[in-house]
């Protein structure tokens, strides 16, 4: 395994002026680190990776890394990725999104991508809040949590993102947190290797706009919270619903094989081109 | 002139667009069904695989335009087709393609609006939306087809311009042109000019993706071709990285306007009909061109000398054509439109009312007839 310095040397852009945009203590760097470790472990070539993001703090990830990178509009990353993957199926497409990006404004694209089973990996940075715009409640803000647009406590019930994409038909679904870095890296690696639409939901910490308003003002408290709420799926299977209240299951939640979209399309093309050729001969 | 009878085809405007897309090299289409544009998607879903291309029906028009931008970044010529409500949904990402300089073509078969409006009736209500629909100052190319044959040719032109200038191109059809059937003689393959985008030839480490050059259009690498670079909707520097430094912002934004201005004379396509000796000039685009030509025939029989300036490019607005027409000694312009005067205002702007400019407008989903045009001309 590469040392941190070697990893950064190999994958970060040298012509991009640092420092980055993220707050000190933000979980986004931890996720990026895990992504790079997973890519390195598999040995994917930088030229063959396309990293696509939407808008948000999470959306700034691609600018720092030395891949083919595309920073799209808020919520639309998966739809851009769909076109790119169909145009160039040889690319390894990684989509990074925030929770609002993925499940509010971009929710429609996300569920349909799950259903289509196009070979790409979506990594959702779930910090329970709209970070970039300063802390408004998102579709994953916990019930009764505080946000700038819910100063009295959130009265909307949150999505369980992993459950959402599972129901929508994603063929690989995993979840981890920025506390469980080794597990997270491992799961991203498995997701990248999976043939089909894979999703990794990462519970991450945003002390600046979420923690501060919800009695977890510093990164350490937040990461401890992540540790407390995480229950490995193997263990959760033997627990009662009451015991799982307020917890999240982690690990691989779905892993199945179904026909991949691009491969099916290539087959249609093969057949139609053959037929068209025959048609012109006669 | 090819004489073989079987080269003639009976086709609808929307069919002509689909055929033009294929002949112009489009190999990716993403769309969402909407009247009166649906036939384009249906035909391409069937035909694209025959030429190795792909079609996808997205979950909405926001996804459709996002997907064609993504595919174009993958190096494949891409097009979508829609009508008013879908065109409205596409606006944000049209701006993305403008600033990130991604070649795409959007065909908008106009219906009566606003909102769901008059789904199956002709209209020209989206002219200014095509110019200014997405937020912020931005360069755009808008073409308009007056008949079925043009729908074919202008689809290819739209693709060529988008690739050459790295800018979105919007092709407007009204419902009449889209659904009209006509016998057309398509040009042979070798008679069609099909342009490809300029790709970088420098080694990857020298590639500066948004660097200015003589044309103002930087070569575009496809993702996966060994040039790893960054594409963003944020204002960016020459390397593609976000910037808010005033000089870099100014330089970057100016360039994307200037590249279109440099191509102004090529992009601005108009036709002059019977104008040399004319006293009055009709300015028309879309299906109104057909009515105008019939009206001119009648009027000339009566000795009233009328000509037509047919606009095939709406934006950038072909202002030079008006200078030329004014030099013919025109005494007045009539601008008949199926909207409340969207191009009329442009005509007033560029002619500075050196001669009277009149409008004739219809917004209830019916064609403008030759008789109506005749009546208006006689009022001069
Ligand atoms: C169409 C549109 N609406 C609103 C915004 C403003 N906006 C920017 S980022 C953001 C929310 C980001 O939250 P999330 O997706 O959870 O990502 P995070 O910043 O927390 O990583 C919003 C609403 C936008 N850029 N585009
Ligand atoms: S606002 Fe939150 S998510 Fe955004 S950079 Fe700061 S800590 Fe990270």
Explain how this protein is built.
The complex is a heterodimer of chains A (282) and B (380). Chain A is an alpha/beta fold. Chain A has one domain: Rossmann fold (3-Layer(aba) Sandwich), CATH 3.40.50. Chain A has eleven helices and eight strands. Chain A has an eight-stranded mixed sheet, sandwiched between helices. In chain A, helix 10 links the parallel strand 7 and strand 8. In chain A, helix 5 crosses helix 6 and helix 6 packs across helix 7. Chain A is globular and about 75 Å long. Chain A starts with a helix and ends with a helix. Chain B has 380 residues and is an alpha/beta fold. Chain B has three domains: 187 residues, Rossmann fold, CATH 3.40.50.970; 62 residues, no CATH class; 108 residues, Rossmann fold (3-Layer(aba) Sandwich), CATH 3.40.50. Chain B is built from 13 helices and 16 strands. In chain B, strands 2, 3, 4, 5, 6, 7, 8 and 14 form an eight-stranded mixed sheet that branches. Chain B has a five-stranded mixed sheet with strand order 11-13-12-15-16, sandwiched between helices. In chain B, strand 12, helix 10 and strand 13 form a beta-alpha-beta unit. In chain B, helix 10 packs across helix 13. The two termini of chain B are 41 Å apart. The relative contact order of chain B is 0.12. Classes of the chains: A alpha/beta (282), B alpha/beta (380). At the A-B interface, strand 2, helix 4, helix 6 and helix 11 of A face helix 3, helix 4 and strand 10 of B. Strand 2 of chain A pairs parallel with strand 10 of chain B, so a sheet runs across the interface. The complex binds thiamine diphosphate and iron/sulfur cluster. Thiamine diphosphate binds next to helix 5 of chain A.
What portion of the residues of chain B fall into strands of 2 or more residues?
Answer: 15-25%
Greatest contact between two chains: A-B, 42 and 44 residues
CATH architectural category of chain A: 3-Layer(aba) Sandwich
Q: How many helix segments of chain B?
A: 13
Class from helix and strand fractions of chain B:
alpha/beta
Order of helices and strands of chain B: EHEHEHEHEEHEHEHEEHHEEHEEHEHEH
Q: What proportion strand of chain A?
A: 15-25%
> Uncertain spans of chain B, ≥5 residues at pLDDT below 50?
none
- Give the CA-based shape of chain B: globular
CATH topology of the largest domain in chain B: Rossmann fold
CATH architecture of the largest domain in chain B: 3-Layer(aba) Sandwich
CATH class division of the largest domain in chain B: Alpha Beta
Distance between the termini of chain B: 41 Å
The string of secondary-structure elements of chain A, in order, is HHEHEHEHHEHEHEHEHEH
Oligomer: heterodimer
Mass-distribution shape of chain A = globular
How many β-strand runs of chain A?
Answer: 8
The pLDDT mean of chain A sits at 96
Radius of gyration of chain B: 21 Å
The helicity of chain B comes to: 25-40%
